[in-house]
Amino acid sequence: MDQKIINLYDEYTHSQLSRKDFMKKLAVLAGSTALAMTILPMLENNYAAAAGFDSDDIEVENITYQGVEGEMKAVLAKPKGKKKLGCVLVIHENRGLNPHIIDVTKRVAAEGFLALGVDALSPFGGTPADEDKGREWIGKLDPEKNLQNYLKGLDYLRNRKDGNGKVGCVGFCWGGGMANKLAVNDPKLQAAVAYYGAQANVADVPKIKASLLLHYGGLDERINAGIPAYEQALKDNKIDYKIYIYDGVNHAFNNDTSPTRYNEAAAKLAWQRTIDLFKRKLAILTR
């Protein structure tokens, strides 16, 4: 697919561009409204077409924990019959806790961790079925309260009796940016993994104590523009970090429900690197 079309969709999902204006621009790039309508399903997430993750070795439940102003909804997944687990908070993209991110949470659990997928849209009642509505609500979240709700999620994991007290996080897109923010704002965080997420403020980098793993798509010019300054600050402050830029792949390359942007090879490699970090940093505490 023409990269200009993919870039347009990226603009649409990460800005205030209305669906009406997006469709007009898509029709121009596609050559007609009819062709635009044909292309659209290839751009949008298709949860029904993607192979959902399932495993008999994990247990999954919906839980709540106390947020800043009410309860936060989340999905909790963990290996059956296991205790003293390393814990991972999973942070969704800018449309809420959708089926894809729930699958990611299950996949983390299947790797041997206690995984918590938090629904940032809990203050609005939870993630809506309409992704455009979810994107709208994300923009209406109070940034400080939202940050505190995630920090409380990390504390919830630390206090779980089936956890070992060690906690990391992994986020995607909007959630990748939040993973960087959590690294800045939680000095007890052991590891933070950001997939194509906005970088933390350079001035805040000295606060980071966690090990960072940063995944970027080589074609993601919007997000990648912030890499040089961020990496220099990480070097200057001697932060433990790794940056990987996957050539020829787009923003959201890990999302297997997005057929035009998903890249299987890059997704598998980034995932293995992510799990390897968590296994190193979130191992059972020696007693």
TrEMBL record:
Name the keywords, alphabetized.
Hydrolase, Membrane, Transmembrane, Transmembrane helix
Asked if the record carries the keyword Aminoacyl-tRNA synthetase, the reply is: no
Q: Is Transferase among this UniProt entry's keywords? A: no
Give GO MF terms, alphabetically.
Answer: hydrolase activity
All copies of the Dienelactone hydrolase domain together span 72-280
Where is the YqhI domain positioned along the sequence? 2-28
- Which organism was this protein described from? Pedobacter chinensis
Identification of the protein by name = Dienelactone hydrolase family protein
Q: Which residues cross the membrane?
A: 26-43
Q: Which InterPro entries match?
A: AB_hydrolase_fold (IPR029058), Dienelactn_hydro (IPR002925), Dienelactone_hydrolase-like (IPR051049), TAT_signal (IPR006311), YqhI_dom (IPR057802)
Phylogenetic lineage:
Bacteria, Pseudomonadati, Bacteroidota, Sphingobacteriia, Sphingobacteriales
